[in-house]
Amino acid sequence: MALTLRSSTSFIKLKDSRCFKTLDAFSGMVCFAQIRPSCRLRAKSLTQEAQFSCERTLNLEDRRNEKWEKLHKLSDTHGENDSRVPVFVMLPLDTISYGGNLNKPRAMNASLMALKSAGVEGVMVDAWWGLVEKEGPMKYNWEGYAELVKMAQKHGLKLQVVMSFHQCGGNVGDSCSIPLPPWVLEEISKNPDLVYTDRSGRRNPEYISLGCDSLPVLRGRTPIQVYADYMRSFRDRFKDYLGEVIAEIQVGMGPCGELRYPSYPESNGTWRFPGIGEFQCYDKYMRASLQASAEAIGKEDWGRSGPHDSGQYNQFPEDTRFFRRDGTWNNEYGQFFLDWYSGMLLEHGDRILAAANGIFQGTGAKLSGKVAGIHWHYRTRSHAAELTAGYYNTRHQDGYLPIARMMGKYGVIMNFTCMEMRDGEQPGNANCSPEGLVRQVKMATKTAGTELAGENALERYDAGAYSQVLTTSRSDSGNGLSAFTYLRMNKRLFEGENWRHLVEFVRNMSEGGRSTRLSKSDSSRTDLYIGFIKEKSERKMKKAALV
């Protein structure tokens, strides 16, 4: 099956995408031809020209006001008259090579053109700390990202750029390995307590421990200073694109870019779904903080260690004395520990977002922060998997409202995952409820007055997943979504049926998710239409057309 994309000015013809082994092969099959626009499109073009002519006569102040409105359009809360939800698509994790160049630029150019034809608002890319600052402290290489920004601008696409201060590799969906900068790894080798540590002493190199946020442990700079210098360098390098092409900066605050502890690491089989995970508070900096907090309330014994009865990574809540139904999570000690553990995470997020807000304020780019969708054991009283990750969310306590308020303080969008999941798809013994979790987060952000955006947690191409996102995107209960980012662009996305689902999903999101089911075929004859046609050819190939 070949995919044919058509717009008012060009079309793209592809051979059977199942035969493409690489995106380079995909790009090699792209061709263009000018087609005559319809009367309606010519009229639209004349209207746009008239608008452009009018805009040229605006005075400087009007231009500034117009630009401000344009830059903040993405962040507007969706009311009755503006229910559109823009869709972004995540780019591959290795979009930028280890050498700092744009990977497979021809394939990327073709892919961006196809996404634009589908009505996608823009794309998301990770700006890896391990790539940009790998040559040494404050030696930044943004060249590959500059090439991508210009390419996105050429196609009229927006960019969401993630300040990725974590390593790539060892988690769900990680298809490549990008460690922290070599000079940072040198410091870690000298002082292993710079990274998160579990009860057994296992070190996790994904992200610098928040316990040393304010200590000059990275060659004279604190981690927060290092992150701030990195973001400031990005701002200065791309100041001409911020707020226009670069619409959003997502600030990484933990493993996978999420505000959480690395409580469920998949590397080397340490953790497997649906294990409860483990607390990550045993580096010397976290232990010193715990000790100080315990002494401050006259409970010195409580500060000597984390819970001794909280089990191991792959256990269930009822297997442990701490997390079981009437466990110690809910006694005075448990409440003290969980307050401290989650509070440290909130303070970490506050420090980074305060720095980011100061750096990007006035640029027109929105800020966002990502929160993990930890939906397993959600139906239990203790919510064990959420607790080990740093979210103090139990049957008796809302763990997401404090996070939403912290982000809202800086006008930061909360980006939440697992928007595509349904309760009925999960294993019964795991007590999952992704739908209940999403409802809770929507209410928390609504109460806090914080914007909410969403992502899918796992790669999905089926109509059911898209329909669930359409349902959760609405503001019927709690906050609606200000944007949705689809995970992830790869060759499978461009295959006929998968592509059709994406195109119709984008269209439905542009209509505010009013239709929550994807049709088997699209006969609406809108500007963004996909249907299946039969063509007689020597090869008797079927082609999918975007008309």
Automatic annotation (TrEMBL):
Single GO term (MF): beta-amylase activity
Catalytic activity line of the entry:
Hydrolysis of (1->4)-alpha-D-glucosidic linkages in polysaccharides so as to remove successive maltose units from the non-reducing ends of the chains
> What biological processes does GO assign it?
polysaccharide catabolic process
- Positions with a binding annotation for substrate: 126, 166, 174, 370, 375, 417, 456-457, 488
Give the Pfam families listed for this entry. Glyco_hydro_14
Keyword hit for rRNA-binding: no
Q: Which residues cross the membrane?
A: none
Q: Does the keyword Hydrolase apply?
A: yes
Q: Which UniProt keywords apply?
A: Carbohydrate metabolism, Glycosidase, Hydrolase, Polysaccharide degradation
Per the UniProt entry, the Enzyme Commission number(s) are 3.2.1.2
Which residue positions are annotated as catalytic? 258 (proton donor), 455 (proton acceptor)
The record, for PANTHER family, names: BETA-AMYLASE 1, CHLOROPLASTIC, BETA-AMYLASE 3, CHLOROPLASTIC
Family designation: Belongs to the glycosyl hydrolase 14 family.
This one is known as Beta-amylase
Organism annotation: Actinidia chinensis var. chinensis
